[in-house]
Specification:
- The chain is of the alpha+beta class and 150 residues long.
- It has a single domain, classed as Thiol Ester Dehydrase, Chain A (Roll).
- 25% of the residues lie in helices and 33% in strands.
- Strands 1-4-5-6-3 form a five-stranded antiparallel beta sheet. A two-stranded antiparallel ribbon has the order 2-7.
- The chain is globular.
- It starts with 11 loop residues before the first strand and ends with a helix.
Length: 150
C-alpha cells in the first residue's frame, strides 16, 4: 500500500544496512515485530543526516516531531545475523508534517521483508501541535525541491 500523498516525481531516498542482533529476535529466532520500528527510526536518522533534517535541527528550531500514524506490512522474516537494507523515502507534502515510506530487504537475496509508512506532525516544546508549516521546514523544502522535481 502506497501512501495517498505519494507523488510520481523523484524521491529523496536514503539506504542503510543493519545486521540483526540476538537481542532483536524472539523465541523462534525471527526478528521481533517491534524491532522493525527501531530499524525505521534508524532509517529516519540516517535520512536526516544525509539531507539536513536531523532531529537536533528540528529541536533547535523549537519543535519535536512525534509519529502520529504508522502502518507496517510484514512480508517476510529475518533472523540472527541476517543483514537488511532499510530504504527510507521522503514523501513530499504540505503543511506541518513529514511523511516517510520504508522498504526493508534482506541483503543476501533481496527479499522484500517489510513495507511501512509514517506521518509525523510538528509540535512545540510546550506540547501544542503546529498547524502551519514551520519556517525552518519551509526553507528545507525550498532547498530540496530541485532534488524531487522531475
Amino acid at each position: 500500500m502506497r501512501h495517498p500523498e505519494t507523488t510520481t516525481g523523484k524521491r529523496l531516498k536514503d539506504s542503510i544496512e543493519i545486521k540483526i542482533r540476538f537481542s532483536e529476535v524472539d523465541s523462534v529466532k525471527m526478528a521481533w515485530h517491534g524491532s522493525y520500528v527501531k530499524y525505521m527510526e534508524d532509517g529516519r536518522e540516517s535520512f536526516g543526516r544525509k539531507y539536513g533534517l536531523e532531529y537536533s535541527r528540528i529541536f533547535d528550531n523549537g519543535y519535536v516531531a512525534p509519529i502520529v500514524d504508522m502502518h507496517l506490512q510484514y512480508k517476510h522474516t529475518v533472523t540472527i545475523d541476517d543483514e537488511i537494507i532499510v530504504e527510507t523515502s521522503y514523501i513530499p507534502s504540505s503543511g506541518a508534517k513529514l511523511l516517510f515510506e520504508y522498504d526493508i530487504y534482506r541483503k543476501s537475496d533481496n527479499v522484500h521483508v517489510l513495507h511501512a509508512t509514517t506521518i509525523q506532525l510538528f509540535m512545540t516544546k510546550e506540547g501544542e501541535f503546529e498547524i502551519s508549516e514551520p519556517e525552518f521546514l519551509a526553507q528545507w523544502r525550498e532547498k530540496i525541491k530541485d532534488l524531487i522535481s522531475e
